[in-house]
Amino acid sequence: MQSGSSSSSKLERNAMEKKRRMEMKVQFSKLAFLISTEQTSKKRMPPDVLLDKATSYVKQLKENVEQLKQRKEDMAGGSMLPVLALREHMDSTLEVNLITELNKNFMLYAVIGVLEEEGADVVGASYSTVGNKIFYTIHSQVYI
């Protein structure tokens, strides 16, 4: 009688193992779909290659998250530059104040060009550097 029970338990183990392999195959297919590229989507990858690509992909995502966190931190830390402020005085002068970051490529001539296109005559400009910020002041005469 023991041989009958051992053969049924062997059949159960085989069925459980087959079910486990099928489930793993489904999970590997889902993983392949998530990380597939145009080159890898046409061919089936062995599980070890798939896991290696998935690991690299997760590492890349982690780096991206860290970079985005750093950018968010930089933006929250007051680096929302450039800042532009305009002041019109009673004597028809216009003062333009700009604050930019030192390491950013800023085109002051473009701002002066806009002022001149709008009819202002630029009479002076100055700048000062404090830390990693540049403070520009442009004085212009407005003719009405």
Question: Can you describe this structure in just a few lines?
Answer:
With 144 residues, the protein is α+β, with helices and mostly antiparallel strands. The protein has helices at residues 2-35, 47-76, 108-117, and strands at residues 83-88, 93-101, 120-130, 133-142. It is 51% helix and 25% strand.
Structure characterization notes:
With 144 residues, this protein is α+β, with helices and mostly antiparallel strands. The protein folds into 2 domains: 73 residues, Irregular (MYOD Basic-Helix-Loop-Helix Domain, subunit B); 60 residues. The protein has a 4-stranded antiparallel β-sheet, covered by helices on one side. Strand 1 and strand 2 form a beta hairpin. Helix 1 packs across helix 2.
Number of strands: 4
| Count of the separate structural domains | 2
The coarse overall form would be rod-shaped
Radius of gyration, CA atoms, in whole angstroms: 33 Å
Give the assembly state of these chains: single chain
Strand order of the largest sheet: 1-2-4-3
CATH architecture of the largest domain: Irregular
CATH class of the largest domain: Few Secondary Structures
Query: Residue ranges: pLDDT <50 for 5 or more in a row?
Result: none
Give the averaged pLDDT, no decimals: 85
Report strand %. 25-35%
- The tally of helices reads 3
Which structural class should the secondary elements be placed in? Answer: alpha+beta
- CATH topology-level fold name of the largest domain: MYOD Basic-Helix-Loop-Helix Domain, subunit B
Give the fraction of residues assigned to helices: 40-55%
Biggest sheet overview = 4 strands, antiparallel
Coiled coil: 51-78
GO cellular component, one term: RNA polymerase II transcription regulator complex
Domain BHLH: 8-61
Keywords: Coiled coil, Nucleus, Transcription, Transcription regulation
